[in-house]
Amino acid sequence: MSNRRLRSWYELKFASFGRFLAKRGFTANFFSALSILTALFVALAYYYHYPWLAAILILLTGFFDMLDGSVARAAGTASEFGTVLDHSIDRYAEYFFLLGVMIGDYAEPFWVLFAFFGMIMASYVRAKAESMGVESCSVGIAERKEKLSLLIIGSLLVTWFEDVKIPIINETIGLLELTVILIGILSHISAIQRIAYAKKLLAT
User: Fold this and answer.
1) Residues 50-73 pLDDT 10s
2) In a domain, 139, yes or no
3) Cα–Cα distance between 106 and 102 in angstroms, integer?
4) What is the domain extent for residue 121?
5) Do residues 62 and 153 share a domain?
């Protein structure tokens, strides 16, 4: 399912729930705040070595993120600024996720920075291309949902197989560090694909 189709699907599924919450006084900003707060708790869960809890909280962060948009649309408060704020909160959430992996000693700082910069660049290229007239630049080998799914899977795997190490050249790395490296590689590939896609459309 493409990113656009997935968004349309969950917007439809969450529409009635969004109306229910909006009628009871909940606002989009309330769920935005919950989303970023939950992302902070993800970092703490990694720091205290509860990767299974971090995985659950990452899912919860995404759930609050979806409710944010659903309530805004139901209350008629959806706006272009709201979209900017929502994407900004997503980037901060990703920062807290990966910060937690690093301070919990699940991955070396180099690989955390490698992955985070890749995620930022993939997001930046999309935003810049769309600001230059590309209708939708959400192309690439992996969208945000796939990368966060990988992080959730890696967190669960390291919970069940904490002592498993993967040999890489002259050293061994843990399952969650391997996941972070994979996220970084996919993110940088996605950024390059989006640059190529933007070049194709903007050069004509």
Assistant:
1) 999 999 999 999 888 888 777 777
2) yes
3) 6
4) 106-204
5) no
In the Cβ-directed half-sphere of 159, how many Cα atoms lie within 13 Å? 17
Q: pLDDT category, 149, cuts 50, 70, 90?
A: very high
Query: Within 10 Å of residue 33's Cβ, how many Cβ atoms?
Result: 14
Same domain assignment for residues 111 and 150: yes
- Here the tokens at position 1 are 């399912």
Q: Are residues 137 and 194 in the same domain?
A: yes
pLDDT of residue 1: 45
Q: Considering the candidates 65, 68, 86, 90, report the single residue annotated as catalytic.
A: 90
Residues 17 and 79 in one domain: yes
Q: How does pLDDT run across 172-199, given as a tens digit for each residue?
A: 889 999 999 999 999 999 999 999 999 9
Q: How far apart are CA 102 and CA 120, in angstroms?
A: 17
- Annotation marks residue 90 as catalytic: yes
